[in-house]
Fold:
Amino acid sequence: MSNIVVDKSKVPWWVSNVIVPLVNLTLALLVSGLFIFIAGENPIEAVKLIIYGSFGYIQGFAYTLYYTTNFIFTGLAFAVAFHCRLFNIGGEGQAYIGGLGVFLVAINLSFLPIPIVWLLSICGAFLFGAAWAYIPAYLQSKRGSHVVITTIMFNFIASSLMIFLLVDVIRDTNQMAPHTVKLPEAIWLPSFEAFSGILGIKIRYSPLNLTFLLAIASLFFVWFLVWKTKWGYEMRAVGHNTQAAIYAGISPHKNIIIAMCISGGLAGLLGVNEILGVSHKIQAGFPAGYGFTGIAVALMGRNHPIGILPAAFLFGILYQGGSEVTFEMPNITRYMFVAVQGLIILFSGALENLFRPQIESFFVRRLNKEVNA
Amino acid sequence: MVSPILELTDVNKSFGHVQANKNINLKINKGTIHGIIGENGAGKSTLMSIVFGLYQANSGSIKINGKEINLRSPRDSIINGIGMVHQHFMLVENFTVLENIILGFEGETVFGEKLQKAKEDLEKLCQTYNFNIDLDATISDLSVGFRQRVEILKSLYRGAEILILDEPTGVLTPQEVDELFKILRSLKDEGKTIVLITHKLIEIMDLTSEVSVMRQGEMVGHTKTEDTSKEQLAEMMVGRSVLLRVDKKEIKKGETVFKVNNLSVKDDLDVTRVKDVNLEICSGEILGIAGVTGNGQTELLEALSGIRKVESGSIELFGEKISDQNNFLNPRMLKEKGLAHVPEDRQRMGLISDFKAHENLIFGYHDQEPYSKSAILNNKEITEYSNKVMQEYDVRPNSPNLITSNFSGGNQQKIILSRELNENPKVLLVGQPTRGVDIGAIEFIHQRLIDMRDKGAAILLASVELDEILSLSDRIIVMFDGKIVGEKENKNVTDRELGLLMAGVA
Structure:
């Protein structure tokens, strides 16, 4: 099986970048269906519920896009670092600290004109996230401490630090729960409800807000950075072949730092969505695993913005549609959907090359036949 | 007549298109130290890896004590009494000597009796051959010389009758070499057979009783050591092949460009590789560095190009100090001063195999106009330039968007050369410019280098191909063991003279 040798130069791009991920995804969903069947529910009904929950009504769709926003940020965060061959597992912690950045900037500068508050808060989120990634980056480039280990540790440190702050320092002292006061309503980011009035649709509540556009802009930003600028070029050079980079006068140290800081900054932007857009206060544990799921999003999206967008959307569907299923089907718990996510990660990440050689050689042979015929 | 303990008949081995061993015949007699000598890449290590079962020969037979055997893995070889000490030791660093030696041959699940027995056996072995090793020492605490002894001990413990040593002295200090030779002699006296792979003639003359010479994958001669001389061996080793002659104008030597004063450089393992080197290169000349690989050429080139820190001494470029032990200009700064560098190992350093060809064509120049403006890459310009330069250098296929690893070695080399020569550098450092490149491309590359010289560039050419050095250089220096052991104008120099210098004989 493994000895199928495919001439990579002959494989069309759409085979490796579209067909193969789709096959892997289908397999993951088939196995998931099997699980749902074993749990005693009808998989077809579950799929219907997922589709209805995430597309069937406007509020559900808004939820889907809200989740997608978060996944875009954390997926991009992982992808940027990965282009420098750094496994940034610390998206979770960087997002957490990013949230602190948004909140501190927004609450302290709320007297400024509103768009400026937004802009500065976004910068705050990016800078705090970047700063949290800077330390592991420095330790990696100067001391050789592996970034996988340090970023995981920094997730825990971020979590403990935030709990400390939320309990002892920035808690809303009028109550006992570990969260802050709310930001003044004037500086909240406009949510989808506000726009829906203009569009003539009426919905009750939706967490979808202007940050979605920031996420789309981030996709463009990352694409441009990685493939169109010399910084991206240098990052990729260091990632692919550090020795050659040194030969060409490119500093690995500098690029590890830059890649990790941009990565951390992007993860930090999740705080904009959650705090400036949705809850308007810092709640303990608000990154809720988005940082980790971002790794799967990036893997599925082959670390390219064009792939990350559909991958993030898919996970958005699973989150939103999945919660719909758990309401309707008593035998399906929300952990079931954690398992489904796990299967997608397994098939599109770990088992990525399971069918790749066969699929690629199949298409190469077919295309050759067409050429010869 | 003694019957041979190991006999190879018509052994062939090829890797892809490269035939590493051609019809090798070899007889090794019991109780002798048999030397196998040849230049790097002559096929010595491949041959011995076949004997040790690491590679399988494409054809031919191997007999041990007259009995034909089939070696499919090192385990087969060990059972048949063959042991091998590799150039790079195969030891678990955080295990003790004892643990390393019994690894894979523990003989029991829970250590107890057998371990004790093994320890006693090993202590006896150590005494017999004067090994002087503490069996409970951790490998990481041992010097290189002792680690090598552990490897030898490991082979002996597993019952080796034939011990193969691949370039055993490369990593040793002179004292350690003496110790090693003592051990090898005592092994021989106890009736063991030793095969010594080396490119150092002195070791052959010192130690062996018989010697076989390999050149370009073929066995070119067998002789008793006492019947030959270093000079004769050197001649056989280097051989005489047809020189590729290049049309070359009379030299127009200009001002001194590069000046290296008492330069010493260490490698990544902290071993001094370049020792107190002095040299000058003038514009309009090609200075060739001849030498067997691993005698400091790599580190010298890396120091000159700003990749490697200088240990002591200094380097001057156009009369300006660019490097000494305190600071050095990085490759980017040197590029701005007109220095280009074609590295010895293109896969490791010269390019990024996963990048597209056009990305590699601007590698190192990517932040200069017109390829990028205020940090944004100008793709149109890059593609246009790539198309042009790939045509000019006849890179096949001429497709700038193809991933570089899909090009053949020769075409990859052309990508590097076109990139480095395109800016018309004033100084050019070139390492192994034609390694793995076919004949047609070799001529092309040579002509380009000559053109650069005629235009007044100063060129430093390091190559293990003597032909290349002889046909291109105006002046030749020979490096051996990190030192410059000879310098000659390239007039009436013979390859034999150079060969002797390269082997550290003359």
The domain at 254-338+425-506 of chain B is CATH 3.40.50.300 (Rossmann fold).
